[in-house]
């Protein structure tokens, strides 16, 4: 249960570049099971709510405008120790500093447009999963 899920989003630039398929394939290769998934678009207000924890950061405006600029794929992923396992798998926040073979290295454009989101704690994974998916939409 807790500790086994994380929330990811394929960010707008990665969607625009046609990377939904390759990224989902990579997620499967990494042994993450899809519990819930949707193709959707955040309003600016929804992006502001999702990234509420970053409200005081200088990049908050840029981040929330970008994240609401086009469609995304949101998904709940399951694996042992999912939060840390997925963060290791996607690589560093800045794609240019991410390890070879990681999702952000392969599909990221720059620091802001870094291909995917990954939850940073079990607590936030649950909050973020609830943001997109009621438990009735998880399988
Ligand atoms: P992570 O996504 O690796 O957990 P953070 O939680 O620190 O990173 O930041 C959330 C998102 O905000 C990042 O994924 C990235 O898209 C964006 N971001 C972080 N730092 C910056 C920055 N200095 N300038 C622009 N965007 C940033
Ligand atoms: Mg984060």
What does this structure look like?
The chain has helices spanning 12-16, 20-29, 44-50, 60-67, 82-90, 103-107, 122-132, and strands spanning 5-10, 33-40, 72-78, 116-118. It is of the alpha+beta class and 139 residues long. It has a single domain (5-133), classed as Nucleoside diphosphate kinase-like domain (Alpha-Beta Plaits), CATH 3.30.70.141. A 4-stranded antiparallel β-sheet has the order 2-3-1-4. The radius of gyration is 14 Å and the shape is globular. The mean pLDDT is 97. It binds adenosine-5'-diphosphate (ADP) and magnesium ion. The site of adenosine-5'-diphosphate has 9 residues, from helix 4.
Salient structural properties:
single chain; 139 residues; Alpha-Beta Plaits; 7 helices; 40% helix; binds adenosine-5'-diphosphate
Instruction: Work out the radius of gyration.
Output: 14 Å
CATH topology: Alpha-Beta Plaits
* Low-confidence runs: none
Q: In this structure, how is the largest beta sheet organized?
A: 4 strands, antiparallel
SSE sequence, one letter per element: EHHEHHEHHEH
Helix amount: 25-40%
Number of domains: 1
How many beta-strand elements? 4
Give average pLDDT, whole number.
Answer: 97
Strand order of the largest sheet: 2-3-1-4
- Which overall shape is indicated by the principal axes computed on the Cα atoms? globular
Kindly name the structural category. alpha+beta
**Ligand species:** adenosine-5'-diphosphate, magnesium ion
What is the correct CATH architecture? Answer: 2-Layer Sandwich
Q: Could you tell me the strand content as a percent range?
A: 15-25%
Number of helices: 7
CATH superfamily: Nucleoside diphosphate kinase-like domain
Distance between the termini: 13 Å
CATH class bucket: Alpha Beta
